[in-house]
Structures are given as structure tokens and as C-alpha cells.
Amino acid sequence: ICAGVVAAAAVLCGPDATAIPRPRADDPTWEVTGLGNARLLVAAGAVGKPDVDGEGSFRVSELFDVEDKASPGKVLAVIRVTTTYRRAVTSAAAVGQNKSAQQKQANYIFEGLQRATLLPAPKTPGGDPGQKGVATYTSLLLYRH
Questions:
Q1: How far is CA 43 from the centre of its chain?
Q2: How much is the pTM?
């Protein structure tokens, strides 16, 4: 399960939420449970592009519709997940702790600052949910190679 789904599940059902794939027709869908809730999370779109932070950074924006398990198709809310990935030098390489470290190729990690925002359901189906969030969940992802 991708990091965007995990973040959307966390903002919806808490940090210990579980997400189980429940594919239907053409919509990637997950059943999300936690905090006594069970909802459907339906992928509604995603886009990725280089970020304004410059070389080595990339931003991914994902949208998910939240539906009631008992009433699939009725959007209860929308979740927007924005993740900004960037390449960062590890602390030892950044400070050059010794000459041998300076001679080695710098070590990098990839980090992702992720923000999931729960938005109210749009007033019209497929409409804009607006920008005012009901709840936000922020996390930092670290990837080492």
C-alpha cells in the first residue's frame, strides 16, 4: 500500500488505522478501519511534478474520496495528501567529520514531508471541496539506499 493511502487512512481513522484493498470496477479502493470507524477510501486522482524547492525535489498530490461502507458512491468527505520528496545529504557527509569521509561519495537519503488534509464533501458531485480542512495529519518519511 502506497504512503499516500497510509496517510489518508491515518487522518480518517487514526495513526493505527488499517487499510485493506477492496478493488471495484475501475476505482482503486481500500476499506479503512480504526477508532470504531469503517469507511471506503477511493482514489480520485494524483499528479506529480518537480517542486519549487529546486533540483532533487518532487511533489506528489493525491485525492481520495471517503465513502460510507453501507452507501458506496456517496462521498462523505475528500482527503488531499501532498508529499514533497527531496534528496538530503546525511549528517556525516554534510559536516565532513574527517578527511576520509570527504573523499568518499556523499551519502544521501530521500525524505518526504507528507500532509494529509480531511476536507468536507463537495456541495456538488465532482465539485471542488475547497481549501478549509477539518483535520490534518503530518508525517516525515525517510528512505535510505
A1: 12
A2: 0.81
Instruction: Measure the CA–CA gap between 125 and 120, rounded to whole angstroms.
Output: 12
State the residue for C-alpha cell 481500500: 30
Residue 138 makes CB contacts below 8 A (sequence gap 6+) with: 113, 114, 115, 116
- Listed in sequence order, the residues at least 6 apart from 31 whose beta carbon sits closer than 8 Å to its beta carbon are 19, 20, 22, 38, 39, 40, 41, 69
For 117, counting Cβ atoms within 10 Å of its Cβ (0-12 exposed, 13-18 middle, 19+ buried), the class is buried
In tens digits, the chain (145 residues) has pLDDT values of 789 999 999 999 999 999 999 987 778 999 999 999 899 999 999 999 987 777 778 999 999 999 998 888 889 999 999 999 998 877 654 445 555 544 456 678 889 999 999 999 888 777 777 778 888 899 999 887 6
DSSP letter (8 states) at residue 24: B
Q: Which residue has the cell 528512505?
A: 143
